[in-house]
Input
Amino acid sequence: MNTTLQLLEPLIGREIHIGAHRGTVIEIQDDPPSLILRAENSPDAFQVDYLGRPRSMAQPTWTQPIAGDSGRGLHPDLQRQLPRETAQALDELIKSGLA
Output
C-alpha cells in the first residue's frame, strides 16, 4: 500500500467538514488521492440503474480531492481537521508530486 493510502486509511468512518458540507468518509481512492464521503443530514436521493430508472433511495455521496484548488498543497479544510502529523505528511507528499 502506498504512503498516501496509509495516511488516509484511518480517516474511514470519520466525519469531515468541507466548506458548508458535512460527510462521513466511506472510502479512499489513490488516483487522484481523494476521499469518498457520504453526505450527512441531507435527504436521501434516488439511485438510478444504467438505464436511468430509479431503483433505490440512498444518502448522496461525493468525491473530495485531498489537494486544495491550486493543487499545490493539502485542502485547507482537511489541513484544519486532520491530526497535525498526518496533515503535514500529506501536504509534503502533494508538494513533492508523490501524492
